[in-house]
Amino acid sequence: MIDFDDFKKKMLAAKSGMVDATSSQNDEAKDGVDTYQKEWEKDAFLNYSNTWKEDVNAKENGWKQKINMKDYKNDYKCTMHQRKNPAIGVDLIRVHCFFKGVQCEHIVDYFMNPPPNKMIKEFKDIETFPNGDKITYTRFKIPMMSEREAIAKYSHKKMDDGSIFITIQSCEHADAPKVKGAIRMF
User: Fold this and answer.
1) What would the pLDDT profile of 89-138 be if each residue is shown by its tens digit?
2) What pTM does this model have?
3) Which domains are present in the chain?
4) Of 110, 168, 120, 114, whose CA–CA distance to 142 is shortest?
């Protein structure tokens, strides 16, 4: 049986390795999960920006192309690159998606307000922020697995070039205690 609290500590420790030398997470004051989550939010865009600036075609950056859709299929195409994160050994995935006839705001809405799905047993907004970001609770059942639940903060930022940066980060919230029989995901 997996010791969930131990697993959670290891996951948080692994995530803390996803920051670079300029990160505020490198400060000495690391006093628990709440501090970690606040600091991670500050660093999410910095981490994204630094990774996004890397040339995926430069060998020294270690990116390997996994998908290269040259032509649109059902008005969609993408490229996907993957590389190890040397700090923790977990793969980073970078995807460039292109949609015909879809506005960026519709993609944000899809992530922030997912459509009904027979596997989703419960989905609710727990907290909504003035800029439209929010914290949600989702409980779902996937075939051949027990029920899972997740609390996540969905954030978005409109970029100067018109694109939109979306992060989905695991978190905890006082208004979403664990549900008996469901495994909390991080």
Assistant:
1) 667 788 888 888 888 788 878 877 888 889 989 999 999 988 888 999 99
2) 0.57
3) 104-186 (3.30.530.20)
4) 120
